[in-house]
Design a protein that fits this description.
about 500 residues; mainly alpha; Fumarase C, Chain B, domain 1; 2 domains; two-stranded parallel sheet; 21 helices; Fumarase/histidase_N; cytoplasm; lyase
């Protein structure tokens, strides 16, 4: 995997994806002049003696309290320590790394008033694999992701904990072992580090990237299920979808046609099959999966803009030596995007579960009951389908929009918040659930195709079936199902399934 050269304000979605997947990050050195100008502007603003929010005043409801020059450094340290008040399990390391990269790109645009040495420390921590321990709960997604980002900022001043090479240790020890020194925060720097949407955005991006893998995998298993049920490919005819005009629907139909092209099982469907129409779970895949793709792409567009923006407060404009206080920290765009992603994840899993249910029902699939050669003595896929149903039901509950909720904070100064952080935090769990459903479908669909031997499927679907069969043999008698399901899930999560099937549509 190549390194990502971070060009602040112009980072492609693919580069954020690469960082999430583990790519190293280097900051474009062209940023340095802008950062230095921004820090110098803060010094000039202070020299005027006027009260400026976050630089020489208190924060939030305490914005009217003026802070003396001798206490400015202490003010910034205090805001980091007091705001590092998160709870819950640590956010995943890939998510926190992505959050750090997002914050680095934001600060480097020269609108936050931080000094070059502060930016350099954050970049060095990323480069050396020092990942702050960030409790995942405690942000309401407005006034920035204050608590999570404060935990990140705390490690930069030598407080809190850091994961280094998989070992959790005090931040001061991790910095020292890496040859780094904690920074003493200057005016505005503490607020700049902990104000912004980078935690919510990193979680939403992580959910998007996992949802993209989920979507692509579900296209393959959906096509394989269609083969197993000897379903019709007429519903994928391009003339149908061109008339409706939705881009995602057109692309999904084309992908399903390509996945099944040249299949002997496809050809066998044309001979002697009395069915006129298949169930919706087969027939309406382009409409459902295409709509999910369109929604994911809209969320991706929003998140790409957000990831390249500056969302702390106040913002520094060196050309006029102004510090303008606004509300870019409000994460409503991220909250809406997260809700959209949640809906897509839920529907991808939901229609896949219906395909599993169809395959185990001999009246619908024409296959042996519960996909076992000896039903009765063997239960076959009876309970894996129940598990899939349970996971889909759980995702339905989690898909309830988070963005429609709000709760006042900071003594009603911050009276409308986005709930973006937990709206985005659920996405990784939801994709895990849905990927487990897709893993069950992969097992069930491959088993169904096995019953059609000696007929085979198409070249790409046979590659998908072989990928599974290299790890999991055909079910002949009941066996311990959990390890088999875990193996299928692991292959999907790792991208092994997608590695053998190409030209699948993505979110960007």
């Amino acid at each position: 995997m190549i390194d990502v050269l971070l060009c602040p304000g112009d980072v492609a979605l693919a580069e954020w994806r690469a960082i999430y997947r583990g790519a190293a990050v280097r900051l474009d050195p062209a940023h340095a002049e802008r950062v230095a100008e921004s820090a110098a502007a803060v010094a000039r603003i202070l020299a005027k003696g006027d009260p400026v929010y976050g630089i020489n005043t208190g924060f939030g409801k305490l914005a009217s309290v003026r802070i003396g020059d001798d206490d400015l450094a202490r003010l910034q340290r205090n805001i980091v320590l007091s705001h590092a008040a998160g709870v819950g399990a640590p956010a995943p390391v890939p998510v926190v790394r992505l959050m750090m990269a997002l914050k680095l790109a934001s600060l480097a645009q020269g609108a936050s008033g931080v000094r070059p040495e502060t930016v350099a420390l954050l970049e060095a921590m990323l480069a050396q694999g020092l990942t702050p321990v960030v409790p995942a709960q405690g942000s309401v997604g407005a006034s920035g992701d204050l608590a999570p980002l404060a935990h990140m900022a705390a490690t930069m001043i030598g407080v809190g904990e850091i994961f280094a090479d998989g070992v959790r240790m005090p931040a001061s020890d991790a910095l020292r072992q890496a040859g780094l020194s904690p920074v003493e925060l200057g005016p505005k720097e503490g607020l700049a580090l902990l104000n912004g949407t980078q935690f919510s955005c990193s979680l939403a991006l992580a959910g998007l990237f996992e949802a993209e893998r989920l979507f692509q995998s579900a296209l393959v298993t959906g096509a394989l299920s269609t083969e197993a049920a000897r379903g019709s490919d007429t519903p994928f005819d391009p003339r149908i979808h061109d008339l409706r005009r939705h881009r995602g629907q057109i692309e999904v139909a084309a992908t399903l046609r390509a996945l099944m092209a040249g299949s002997p099982i496809r050809a066998s469907h044309l001979e002697g099959d009395a069915r006129v129409q298949d169930p919706y779970c087969l027939r309406c895949q382009p409409q459902v999966m295409g709509a999910a793709l369109d929604v994911l792409r809209q969320a991706a567009a929003t998140l790409e803009i957000e990831a390249n923006g500056v969302s702390d407060n106040p913002l520094i404009f060196p050309d006029t030596d102004e510090a303008l206080s606004g509300g870019n920290f409000h994460a409503e765009p991220v909250a809406f995007a997260a809700d959209m992603i949640a809906l897509a994840i839920c529907e991808i899993g939901s229609i896949a579960e219906r395909r599993i249910a169809m395959l185990v029902d001999p009246a619908l699939s024409g296959l042996p009951a519960f996909l076992t050669p000896r039903p009765g003595l063997n239960s076959g896929f009876m309970i894996p389908q129940v598990t899939a149903a349970a996971l889909v039901s759980e995702n339905k509950q989690r898909a309830t929009p988070a963005s429609v909720d709000s709760i006042p904070t900071s003594a009603n100064q911050e009276d409308h918040v986005s709930m973006a952080a937990h709206g985005a935090r659920r996405l990784l769990d939801m994709t895990e659930n849905a990927m487990a459903v897709i893993g069950i479908e992969w097992l069930a669909a491959a088993q169904g195709v096995d019953f059609h031997a000696p007929l085979a499927s198409s070249e790409p679907l046979e590659a998908a079936r072989a990928c599974l069969r290299n790890e999991v043999p055909t079910l002949t008698d009941d066996r311990h199902f959990h390890p088999v399901m875990e193996r299928a899930n692991a292959l999907i999560r790792s991208g092994a399934l997608l590695a053998v099937v190409h030209d699948l549509p993505g979110v960007a």
